Amino acid sequence: MGVQEILTMIKYAHVQEWVDRMAAMCQPDSVYWCDGSEEEKRRLTAEALRSGEIMELNQTVLPGCYLHRTAANDVARTEHLTYICTSFQGDAGPTNNWMSPREGYRKAREYFSGAMKGRTMYVIPFAMGPIGSPFSKIGIELTDSIYVVLNMRIMTRMGESVLDALGPKGEFTQCLHSKADLDVNRRLILHFPEDNAIWSVGSGYGGNVLLGKKCLALRIATVQAQREKWLAEHMLILGIEEPVGRVQYIAAAFPSACGKTNLAMLLPPEGLKMKGYRIWTVGDDIAWMKVDTDGRLWAVNPEMGYFGVVPGTNSKTNFNAMATITHDTIYTNVALKPDGTVWWEGHDDPPPAEALDWQGKPWSPKAVGKDGKPLMAAHPNSRFTAPFTNCPTHSFRYEHHHGVPISAIIFGGRRATLAPLVYEALNWEHGVYMGASMASERTAAQVGAVGEVRRDPMAMLPFCGYNMADYFGHWLDMGTRIRRPPKIFHVNWFRTDEKGKFLWPGFGENLRILEWILARQRDEVGGLETPIGIVPNPKDIDMSGLDLPAETMNQLLAIHPKDWLAEIDAVGQFFETFGTRMPEELWQQNEALRRRVLAAAK
Ligand code: GTP
Ligand code: SPV
Ligand code: MN
Q: Under a CB-based contact definition with an 8 Å cutoff, are residues 496 and 416 in contact?
């Protein structure tokens, strides 16, 4: 044992004691403390290349880029194996799987016991949020996967500086991960909010194993946020700068694979370029928000990187993402071309004549599966991991300890029908109702049936670490704490025509809607009062350079009372599941909406 290690042992005795206990259970051959250095990165990369955990891509075209393939049954978050372990089931609520902490530890201990035999246990100290800021939370992840270490290096502030910030008695989230035998029948993602601990076993997929992300920065953080009166949300943060220098920030919650990364990296469309906007990306997945001394809501992105959806990414849909992933990026489950570069469905380049698919099997554009359908080259939930500063539009304010002030909050989902392109809440309470009643079509980001509409309140269904009825109550309470609350909006980029084609071009064109939202926030533009909220006067959306028939715009903004009445019933049924814990205000909002829709339908 070196001098440095002995010093660490003495200085961080409380960490050491926990690491020892976990090592005794998992029985790794060795324990290695990560320092976060470049030298360490080179060493671990070489080791992962040797073991086949990652593959080197063409270093001339994609310097610093690697490819990782997960097991075929381990490609997305497994919500059915994700649990909140609290003493009382009511504290997890009806939207979460629940186990008692005793049962959770007992079951998982069985899977963890001896799971790291023949492997190294890596100790990863990491911080979420700028170190030393009032937002900062520290975690330590123990893992037997170098892929996890290399990803955590990109996604978090990781290494020795974190231990310095932790100090000899500092509180940290205990994060334990083992891929074990990657058996889906022996996989569990357990959260113990009462112990500030996370145990994940049997998976190697991002959201299940990069424990700083969904597990800490959302599920555990939501519990802390409720207690400490702040918000931990599944939201992007972007800044819109006008040529005069004014920058306004927007936070937006869309469910998984519904457009956060794309909106956060937005490139102004041709027709709006002359206005000279600059877009600043502050975050693409998670926002932590606090009321500052000025009474406004301020937000930070607790992460340091992007773990983004690959398919559909190209220079037209997301130019900045394409630039982001040209170097120092880990690709997971994309297709590999013979020249050592990568490809996916929706890439700028046409399909390669031959490639290896995401599982490493030979693939060609003509390949069809047993069901006669074309085989995908990349997995629909294939992902890139890239450093935050790789994005050309990244905001230098990501390091600011107090974050950025939020002017507007947007909720949104994937709805082929019902929800119009954009509408504004009448006030904070109505906005909370809009968030609480949100629904969206399921995507490939989680295991399950794609396309089915499900309630996903505030895009937090899979990520709220406590009873969602209490979470809604917390949102209502936060409204009373913010002196100048941001206005709340709902958007839907995914409305379709009868043939299932998207009516709205989306991506960069979404800036036209953000313009209206900010103008509304500054009281500079009117709107049409409808039963569901305020929608734009079509003349108030700048359509320069976009050739969209007036009829299409009408379709995008149309509100169909019959559909809304059915929706209100469905929302009522959803609220019912929370029983008496459901805040009365939201029931009142549902009934007020019903009255307004009925009155308008007469
Ligand atoms: P997570 O990382 O899973 O939380 O997802 P995300 O919300 O960041 O989703 P992302 O921006 O990666 O978008 C996922 C998918 O939605 C991609 O296939 C995009 O091409 C598609 N998408 C994003 N924005 C738009 C849009 O404005 N219109 C349309 N039609 N599709 C979009
Ligand atoms: C999501 O599914 O919302 C993601 C990807 O952002 S993961 O980190 O896997 O949860
Ligand atoms: Mn997400």
A: yes
What is the residue with the minimal CA distance to atom 4 of ligand 1?
256
Residue 153: other Cβ atoms inside 10 A: 24
How many alpha carbons fall within 13 Å on the CB side of residue 435? Answer: 31
Which atom of ligand 1 is nearest to 254's Cα? 7
In this structure, which ligand is nearest to the CA of 312? Answer: 1
Three-class secondary structure assignment of 156-184: CEECHHHHHHHCCCCCCEEEEEECCCCCH
Would you call 386 exposed, middle or buried from its count of C-beta atoms within 10 A (0-12, 13-18, 19+)?
buried
Length of the chain measured in residues? 602
Angle between helices 584-601 and 561-576 (to 10 degrees): 160
Q: How far apart are CA 437 and CA 132, in angstroms?
A: 36
Let me know if 258 is a catalytic residue: yes
Q: For a substitution probing ligand 2, which of 191, 285, 303 has the most ligand atoms within 8 Å of its CB? A: 285
Reduced 3-state DSSP string for 414-429: CCCCCCCCEEECCCHH
pLDDT digits (tens, 9 = 90+) for 81-124: 999 999 999 999 999 999 999 999 999 999 999 999 999 999 99
Neighbours of ion ligand 3 (CB under 5 A): 256, 285
* Stated pTM of the model: 0.97
Ligand nearest to the CA of 262: 1
The alpha carbon of 344 and the centre of ligand 1 are apart by a number of angstroms equal to 15
In tens, the pLDDT along 196-247 reads 999 999 999 999 999 999 999 999 999 999 999 999 999 999 999 999 999 9
